[in-house]
Specification:
With about 180 residues, the protein is of the alpha+beta class. It has a single domain, classed as Roll (3-methyladenine DNA Glycosylase, Chain A). About 35% of the residues are buried. The protein binds a DNA duplex (12 and 12 nucleotides) through β4, β5, β6 and α4.
Length: about 180
DNA sequence: TCAGTGATTAGG
DNA sequence: CTAATCACTGAG
């Protein structure tokens, strides 16, 4: 399936349940492509966008993962059950939207880099109005943000993750970015 | 290429 | 308390 059609089609679907998120992040990340992100707007309408680009961050051994330095106040949600949101501010301006994956005790998350025709993790959160108030929100039960499965499974490519120069040669090169 | 902008974190 | 860092973006 082409990216073009993903941009146009954000059809209604069924809300994704817990079991989807509690799998390993390397299984969940590619499966997220084509899923529909639904966010409640201020005026009670809803934003609906297909996910087009994501990145996986996996455990304490992954030097690019914020949990690699252990549990802190900010990263504590990554140690919880998959399906929660990990939100943080970067460069004093941009909120990053991440979906926690895996079982309790295994810190993993997927950074959402692109939705619909919006490319860039900082731009999409600005558009959706995502901020620290969404920290810890549960996609399985939330009334204001969730994911739907429309049955669409787009083809995708992989590549190295972006913006992690500090992580060392190995972690900088693993192909854990997935995009349509 | 490079500045903007502020929460988070480790360290004294 | 201080100071460095940072999963980005847009302007030149």
């Amino acid at each position: 399936m082409k990216t073009e059609s993903l941009i146009e089609i954000a059809k209604p679907g069924q809300r994704i349940s817990r079991e989807f998120y509690t799998r390993d992040v390397l299984e969940v990340a590619p499966d997220l492509l084509g899923k529909v992100l639904v966010v409640k707007n201020n005026d009670q309408s809803y934003y609906r966008y297909s996910l087009t680009e994501v990145e996986a961050y996996r455990g304490t051994e992954d030097k690019a993962c914020h949990a690699s330095k252990g549990k802190t106040l900010r990263t504590s949600i990554m140690f919880e059950e998959g399906g929660h949101l990990y939100i943080y501010l970067i460069y004093g301006m941009y909120w990053m939207l991440n979906i926690v994956t895996g079982p309790i005790g295994e810190p993993q998350a997927v950074l959402i880099r692109g939705i619909g025709d919006i490319c860039g993790p900082g731009k999409l959160t600005k558009k959706l109005g995502i901020n620290k108030l969404f920290y810890g929100e549960d996609l399985v039960t939330s009334e204001r943000i969730w994911l739907e499965d429309t049955g669409i499974k787009p083809g995708y490519k992989t590549g190295p993750r972006v913006g992690i120069e500090y992580a060392g040669a190995h972690w900088k090169s693993v192909p854990w970015r997935y995009f349509c």
